[in-house]
Design brief:
By secondary structure, the chain is α/β, with parallel strands linked by helices. It is built from 22 helices and eleven strands. The strands form four sheets. It has a five-stranded mixed sheet, covered by helices on one side. The protein has a two-stranded antiparallel sheet with strand order 6-7. The longest helix has 22 residues.
């Protein structure tokens, strides 16, 4: 490449900055190699052109997910492999079906040794030369070998992607390696002979670095383990939008405070809650035993509070030796309503692994400042933070604004969550389960679990003038069966004719702020989109 031409990294950064023409340069630079990769898998020149174009479209749409702009070429190749495999599975599934007796020779239909269009491509890297040889293998052998040795996927994940047993993948990879040596003889040049390339294929892929994945809950543990993504898993899933947050307390005192809160809400016994927090903290503490820590999060308030906590945790550790990386998404291609990572399959989670981005000092600093503001006794620090640029963590601003809406409303004394529940009930009664689903649908980014939601409903049913009435019967499910109805008082409060904080003593931790009916407190002015101070009402 001409030294005066921009590098791939420079072009990627230009596209991210809004220069769409820079992507045209990337297309021209890599279109031959992209076509070669697709052709090596589908063995159809016309389809390879279409698949390469589809790969470029996907790359453009997901360019922000590229962790290292300098590795655009390798990232693009992985996308080409993905779209090619999707095409093969959709239009030629017979190429991936077992032979029945398991003894059919997958090399029986090796293509003619006559020069192919790929052989006429000049100055391709060694990988592209190998892909030329792969193109001369039947698809049944070609795809597993390319995915395993060139793209680093595990045999388990390849088996899942191709719909064949793992043992079949192992056999096909071995037999295809044996067939490559004579095929690569035609391409030996510049000291890179067929034997040298063949030796590379006889080796197992390089051992990955030691990696720790920090997850937002147990729901994706099994799925990620089945994805073929290397590394150890640790879960840290405290509900940080509830209860006291003693940020400057010792680790032991933090765990005790949070365990006592969990017990007060009936989430678990004190011993169970304490043991769970100890297990979570032990997972984070193992970070220095790994080369890299990957944080997996979503766009909602639950996850963004976890992200703030973790960034503060790692920013404080001056002895940190591991690299920190982040996967944080608010949507996934093909998922119409993305709620969270727990929706995704093993293959989808594996596709996100390559998009992780190394956390910058700016992101660590922003996370630490946001956590300090979130835990502060006065919530106005959050408003000041939101006046500044928070784009380094793209979902943080919206999550913190949603957090401010949990302060009691100026006219009604009702937080947004309870207000949404009352508006639904004003239309008709609901069963507890259906009410939970309907209330979550009103959220831009659902974040409340059913246990937290149900505690809010039960709170509205308390006192001499409850906002809701309950007609319930026990159920083996997490939520009872029966009916939830709005009361006359609930209708009055919803209309702004009464104040819930006056009707029932209100004492709740919202982030680091304590909001009480009996003291000066903060309320949310929805029209002005800001917090205001209010006097005691009890």
């Amino acid at each position: 490449m001409d030294p005066n031409e921009p590098t791939d990294a420079e072009l990627v950064n230009s596209v991210r900055a809004g220069d769409v023409r820079a992507f045209d340069v990337l297309v021209r630079r890599h279109e031959r190699a992209a076509w070669a990769v697709a052709y090596a898998l589908v063995h159809d020149g016309t389809e390879a052109e279409d698949l390469a174009q589809e790969a470029f479209v996907r790359a453009f749409r997901n360019l922000d997910m590229l962790a290292d702009p300098g590795k655009f070429a390798a990232w693009l190749r992985r996308i080409v492999v993905g779209v090619s495999i999707d095409w093969m599975r959709a239009y030629h599934p017979e190429l991936y079906r077992a032979d029945g007796d398991g003894h059919a020779d997958p090399l029986a239909h090796v293509a003619s040794p006559d020069p192919s269009p790929l052989e006429r491509l000049e100055q391709l890297e060694l990988v592209d030369r190998v892909r030329v040889a792969l193109a001369r293998l039947p698809a049944r052998s070609r795809a597993p070998l390319a995915l395993y040795h060139l793209d680093g996927l595990s045999q388990t994940r390849i088996a899942a992607a191709l719909g064949v047993p793992e043992g079949t993948v192992r056999s096909l990879v071995t037999r295809a390696r044996q067939a490559l040596a004579p095929l690569l003889a035609d391409y030996a040049r510049d000291g890179a002979g067929a034997a040298e390339v063949g030796d590379a294929f006889d080796e197992e892929p390089a051992s990955p670095r030691s990696i720790l994945h920090v997850l937002n809950g147990d729901c994706m543990v099994g799925t990620l383990r089945g994805s073929g993504v290397p590394g150890d898993l640790a879960v840290w899933a405290d509900v940080l939008h509830e209860g006291p947050l003693p940020r400057n307390a010792s680790a032991e005192e933090w765990r005790r405070v949070r365990a006592r809160y969990a017990t007060s809400r009936g989430y678990a016994s004190y011993d169970e809650a304490l043991a769970m927090h100890e297990r979570w903290d032990a997972g984070l503490a193992s970070a220095d035993e790994h080369d890299e820590v990957v944080l997996w999060f979503e766009h909602d308030l639950f996850d963004q509070t976890l992200l703030m906590h973790h960034l503060d945790h790692f920013a404080r550790r001056e002895t940190r030796r591991c690299t920190l990386s982040l996967i944080c998404i608010g949507e996934y291609p093909g998922v119409e309503r993305f709620i969270g990572l727990g929706q995704l399959t093993s293959t989808q989670l594996a596709s996100l692994y390559g998009t992780r981005q190394r956390l910058s000092e700016e992101q660590l600093r922003l996370g630490r400042n946001a956590w300090a503001a979130y835990c502060a006794a006065k919530p106005t620090g959050i408003e000041r933070l939101l006046e500044r640029d928070t784009s380094a963590l793209p979902f943080l601003g919206a999550a913190l604004r949603r957090h401010l809406e949990e302060f009691p409303a100026v006219r009604t004394g009702v937080p947004r969550t309870e207000g949404q529940i009352l508006r639904l009930l004003a239309e008709s009664p609901y069963s507890p389960a259906k009410l939970f689903i309907a209330a979550q649908a009103l959220e831009e980014r659902p974040y409340l679990g059913d246990t937290s939601y149900w505690w809010r409903v039960l709170r509205m049913a308390e006192g001499p003038d409850p906002l809701v009435a309950l007609d319930l019967r026990p159920s083996p499910q997490s939520l009872p069966e029966g009916e939830v109805r709005i009361t006359h008082t609930g209708l009055r409060v919803l209309a702004g004719d009464d104040d819930w904080m006056r009707l029932l003593p209100f004492d709740r931790r919202i982030g680091g702020a304590r909001v009480r009916s009996s003291a000066q407190h903060w309320r949310w002015d929805a029209e002005a989109r800001r917090l205001v101070e209010a006097g005691a009402v009890l």
